[in-house]
Amino acid sequence: MKFFIDTANIDQIKTAQSLGIIDGVTTNPSLMAKEGIKGEKNISDHYLKICNSVKGDVSAEVISTDFEGMIGEAEKLASLHSQIVVKIPVIREGIKAIRYLSSKGIRTNCTLVFNPGQALLAAKAGASYVSPFIGRLDDIGENGIELIEKLVDIFNYYGFGTEVLAASIRNTNHILRCMEAGADVATCPLEPILGLLRHPLTESGLEKFLADHKKLND
Ligand code: G3P
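Above: the input record for the complex with SN-glycerol-3-phosphate. Below: its predicted structure, written as tokens.
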């Protein structure tokens, strides 16, 4: 399973990249706004900075909701850097845009996916990734992980090349469950990824190894 880091914060991206286990970055307009990035030029420059801080795909989202607008934005974003994957919402015009962009060789990440029907249309249109938001489904009392399991099965059954990119991951347990479900990618902030390292027996074991070494060597 690949790990993308879900942030537009350059420091966090560089820290994650320095761990050597990050395969890309996902952003969205809310994450860009959180970093205070506004205006077309600053937004493009920031995406370039992200591309230069990480090896792997960088999802950059369009703001338009009509076909022409999405295509125009997507072409500009894709021309910024070869690592850019254009994030398009799973709406009627978005599906049309994904089909067009895929015919032009521009990679897309279909976002705001909450059910298998949406994912199926995105895959048929040629999306490189679909992004089911598992945390937001859990928030409304549905089961986000079940959606990941279904999408993995459906894509395997029909042989779609589209990757299941589990998004809106809120904790370490979500990552573990996504891994069990066979998600191709999990995107989340750095903290839940670091949570994978934690185990009390690792901590106490290391403490004892170091103490035993110290006894003889001090
Ligand atoms: O990038 C999309 C996604 O990961 C959003 O997560 O926590 O805002 O639901 P969240």
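Notes for the reader.
The pocket of SN-glycerol-3-phosphate is lined by residues 6, 26, 28, 133, 135-136, 167-168, 187 (CB under 6 Å).
The CA atoms of residues 8 and 31 lie 6 Å apart.
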